[in-house]
C-alpha cells in the first residue's frame, strides 16, 4: 500500500469514531451531519500536518478540493446526496493516490455487503432493534454513509498494518 503505516495509525483513533458516527446517523436519519464532515476535515488538517511530509500534505489537501468540486457536480446532477459528497471530500486527503485502485475495490465490496445486509435486515426481526430508523422506509434510497465511513475505516486499518 502507498499510504504510510505510521500515518494511518496516527489517523485511526480520530477517524474511526467519526466513521462509526457517520454510518449510524445515516442509517438513523438518512443524513450525514456537517459537524461530522467538518470534524473529519479538521482531523486531517491538524494531524496530517504532523504525520505527513509537507509536499504530500499539500497534495492531499488539493485532493479534498478536487473531490469536493466533483461531489458538488454529482450532487447537482442528482447522482449522490450532499452529505455523501461532503464526506467523500473530507475523507479524500486520508487516501494515498497510489492506493486508488485498492480503495475502489474496498468501496465496491463494502457497498455490496452494506446494501445486501441493510436490505436483508430491513425484512427480518432484527429491524426491531432500531424500528424508527429512517433508512428502513426510504424506498430505493440507501444510507451511503454506511459504506463511505466503512470504506475509510477499512482503508486506514489495512494501511496501518500493510502500509509503506
The total strand number stands at 0
Spatial extent as radius of gyration: 16 Å
Strand composition percent? under 5%
Mean pLDDT: 94
Q: Note the gap between the termini.
A: 6 Å
Which shape, going by the Cα principal axes?
globular
Given helix and strand content, the structural type is mainly alpha
Helix content estimate: over 70%
Low-confidence stretches: none
Q: How many domains make up the coordinates?
A: 1
Give the SSE order as H and E letters.
HHHHHH
The main pleated sheet reads as: none
Q: List the total number of helices.
A: 6
GO molecular function: aspartic-type endopeptidase activity
Pfam families: Peptidase_A24
Keywords: Hydrolase, Membrane, Transmembrane, Transmembrane helix
Protein name: Prepilin peptidase
Describe the structure.
Helix 1 runs antiparallel to helix 6 and helix 4 runs parallel beside helix 6. The chain has one domain. Helices cover 72% and strands 0% of the residues. The chain is built from 6 helices and no strands. It has 164 residues and is mainly alpha-helical.
Present the secondary structure layout.
Layout: H1 5-29, H2 34-51, H3 54-76, H4 82-91, H5 100-122, H6 144-162
Amino acid at each position: 500500500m502507498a499510504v504510510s503505516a505510521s500515518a494511518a495509525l496516527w489517523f485511526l483513533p480520530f477517524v474511526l469514531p467519526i466513521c462509526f458516527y457517520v454510518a449510524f446517523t445515516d442509517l438513523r436519519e438518512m443524513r450525514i451531519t456537517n459537524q461530522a464532515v467538518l470534524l473529519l476535515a479538521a482531523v486531517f488538517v491538524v494531524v496530517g500536518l504532523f504525520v505527513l511530509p509537507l509536499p504530500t500534505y499539500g497534495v492531499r489537501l488539493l485532493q479534498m478540493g478536487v473531490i469536493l468540486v466533483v461531489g458538488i457536480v454529482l450532487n447537482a446532477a442528482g447522482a449522490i446526496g450532499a452529505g455523501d459528497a461532503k464526506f467523500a471530500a473530507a475523507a479524500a486527503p486520508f487516501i494515498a493516490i497510489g492506493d486508488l485502485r485498492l480503495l475502489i475495490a474496498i468501496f465496491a465490496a463494502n457497498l455490496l455487503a452494506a446494501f445486501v445486509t441493510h436490505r436483508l435486515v430491513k425484512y427480518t426481526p432484527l429491524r426491531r432493534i432500531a424500528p424508527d430508523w429512517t433508512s428502513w422506509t426510504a424506498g430505493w434510497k440507501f444510507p451511503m454513509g454506511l459504506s463511505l465511513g466503512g470504506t475509510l475505516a477499512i482503508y486506514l486499518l489495512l494501511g496501518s498494518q500493510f502500509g509503506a
